[in-house]
Design goal:
- The protein is α/β, with parallel strands linked by helices and 362 residues long.
- The chain has three domains: 104 residues, Rossmann fold; 69 residues; 146 residues, Histidine kinase-like ATPase, C-terminal domain (Heat Shock Protein 90, 2-Layer Sandwich).
- It is built from ten helices and twelve strands.
- The longest helix has 55 residues.
- It is elongated.
- The termini are far apart.
């Protein structure tokens, strides 16, 4: 097996204010890696933020002016350098020191005097982990690109299907009830697919910061009334009662009305999907929470287990978490992205005596 060329080798940044330590550690690493050195925090941050950042940073804690903890904190606060793994090198061996370093985002903690075999083994382990993580990120990015391409390709033929079915429904000559019923089913399901495609496209643009919210002052109560009215017939087919509770005072908020309405539609549709037949779904608007306005959607379904609550808003997760229920796993992820883009939050809690309460705070 050919050894990697100098340009293929990972780069390691060694940060230490003691020249002997820099020489010793650099000597251990240079046979297998490219090495950069810095004797203070400012220089270390400059190298880390350069066009050719290091793959790993070995960082001394006890340094004048800017200690290792501060350097690590600044690295993890910057999106450009957040992903660079940091291993602390220090003579401090107390458990509390180690805890503090790991809490700041370091991946490992090696005490001085440094053992060459231990140093080399841990450096290799962290570089292998970073390589695997980077490969996974590339794979996920490729999947997202493929999904976006597919969604765009689906949009045009779907638009044609919707237009043709709508034109046929408007044609009075198509009299047989059975045929009109089938056309209505085609148009209804096509419209559901169109909404899903739109959600995918909007979510992708929001995630990549390619879309701006078109904010305006909106009465959230009016949006909720419209959402409940439009979904009431869908709920009635399952024997569900959809109710709305509004405050007496105004509940205006600066939101993108189209996107926020889609959030409300998704939450109601989600409640309808999980609610048992002949039960009630309640939407409540509450503006008695300081600067936050709360919109809650409560159902009497199976609820969400505590262990699943941190995952239910992640993309593609709902379909695997909720066994036996037809779900894409995109609706709640869409809600989370849109709500957070507004500076708000979304959460799920238990209903009483059964079911779930999804709460949007804006």
């Amino acid at each position: 097996m050919m050894s990697p060329t100098a340009t293929d080798r990972p780069t390691i940044l060694v940060v230490d204010d003691t020249p002997d330590n820099l020489t010793f550690i650099s000597g251990l690493l240079k046979e297998q890696y490219r090495v950069k050195v810095a004797n203070n925090g400012e220089k270390a941050l400059t190298i880390a933020c350069s066009d050719n950042p290091p793959s790993l940073i070995l960082l001394d804690i006890m340094m004048p002016e800017m200690d290792g903890y501060t350097i690590c904190q600044q690295l993890k606060a910057d999106p450009q350098t957040r992903g660079i793994p940091v291993i602390f090198l220090t003579a401090k061996a107390e458990t509390e020191d180690e805890r503090q370093g790991l809490a700041l985002g370091a991946v490992d903690y090696i005490t001085k005097p440094v053992s060459p075999p231990i140093l080399m083994a841990r450096v290799k382990t962290q570089l292998d982990l970073k390589s695997s993580y980077d490969s996974l990120k590339d794979l996920l990015r490729f999947r997202e690109d493929m999904v976006n391409m597919l969604v765009h390709d689906l949009r045009n033929p779907l638009t044609n299907i919707l237009l043709l079915s709508e034109m046929m429904l408007l044609n009075e000559a198509i009299a047989p009830d059975k045929l009109r019923k089938q056309l209505n089913m085609i148009h209804h399901n096509g419209d559901k697919l169109r909404l899903l495609i739109d959600d995918l496209l909007i979510r992708g643009k929001l995630e990549s910061s390619q879309i701006e919210l078109k904010r305006e002052l909106v009465n959230i109560g009016d949006l909720c009334q419209a959402a409940i009215a439009d979904m009431r017939e869908v709920g009635a087919r399952k024997g569900l009662r959809l109710t709305l509770q509004l405050p007496t005072e105004a509940c205006d908020r600066d939101v993108d009305p189209l996107l926020f309405r889609r959030v409300l539609d998704n939450l109601i549709a989600n409640a309808i999907k999980f609610a048992p037949t002949d039960s009630e779904i309640t939407m409540t608007v509450d503006n008695n929470n300081g600067d936050r306005l709360m919109v809650k959607v409560a159902d009497c379904g199976p609820g969400v287990k505590d262990s699943l609550r941190q995952h239910i808003f992640e993309k593609y997760e709902v379909g695997t978490l909720m066994k036996g229920i037809s779900q894409t796993g995109l609706g709640l992820a869409f809600c989370k992205i849109v709500v957070e883009a507004h500076g708000g939050s979304i959460a799920v809690t238990n209903n009483t005596p059964s079911g779930s309460v999804f709460t949007v705070a804006v």
